[in-house]
Specification:
With 185 residues, the protein is mainly α. 57% of the residues lie in helices and 0% in strands.
Amino acid sequence: MADTFTASPLACGADCKDAHHRPRNTGEALLCMKKELKQLYDQDDGRAIFLRAYYLMTAQVNAAVHGKDDFKETGPLFFEPECVDRLAGRFSALYFESLSRSRAWPPEPPICPAWGKAMEQAMQPRPSILQNLLLGINAHINFDLALGIHDVIRQDLQRLRQEVKDPGEARAPERGAAGPVEVRP
């Protein structure tokens, strides 16, 4: 796994305890994933199946967000790459919460039934690769993505509300803004 992705100065481990990763963007998510993949591979753990696919997808999102690799020539892929980068970080933090709960002793209840089933199947001897991928993708998209989008929108609304309260402290308008933003409580 080459480190061809763009990461913030924070390396996995600075804010991460065990599997309690809290990545803020794709670069940090990839560092956390790489660390977890090594542990899962070393333990011959079936939970590495979904995480490997997730790592590859996140590396592509990171390249698209930062205009690297195949995305150098295609131009912008996302209208708001910074938002996508933050969303991917939050999205992966939710996955890491599920991974952490599946490792806990005494066992912690799963974050949702879909992740409970996905982790349970992944820990079986000789797990099915296809079944693990499908269960993990289902739980991640149907549970983590919705919560991740909610969290990022909530953070953005809080930031916008603060900018409206303190216009002197407001940042420059984000790319794509047509003018003043009206934020209603």
